[in-house]
Structure prediction request, 205 residues.
Amino acid sequence: MHLPDGIIPIEQSVLYWCITLMVIAIFLYKFSRNDEKEKSMVLIALFSVFFVVVTSLSIPSPLGVPVHFFLIPLVAIILGPFEGSIVSFFGLLIQSLALNMGGIVCFGANFLVIGVIVAFVTYEFYVLLANINEKMAIFFSTIMGIVFATFGQVLILILSGAMNFDSLLATLVPFYLFIGIIEGFANTIIIYAIRKVKPEIMDLR
Prediction:
């Protein structure tokens, strides 16, 4: 889902960068009022490292295209949407500068899709469904976060003129829906394991 430079027109890239800076500013304001700064900083740093490693791995899939997991839905459920976005910010920056995954000019677009949309949609669906059934909430919120991010990327690519709607819908949506289902199952197992081993982590958001 990492978009390289050259796909998105510069004026659109500037808009996405402005959104990125606004999200960072809001996070810094909220973080300054956080009573658990030290714990949050450690977890953000750890998850940022995990993000770089996990999302850089290429896993073979039955669809014939390697799978790259997101990890951000997990972070958003555990720490909150702003923290999930910041983890993606640091992770995407490292990948862009050190691993040549995604561009700097279109960094804002990648951050908006992989960070902001995934984190906030996942978190809101989790909150909405958690009182009904938490396992279902984790599973479906993960899927919805990834699906909404896919539509976000589809919209960005259409606005850039890079591809048409039908091609994107036929290729990206089924593929990332498949990833969302797998990651939804994985997140459910991981979060319930965390609740048993380190339940205090879940109280930081």
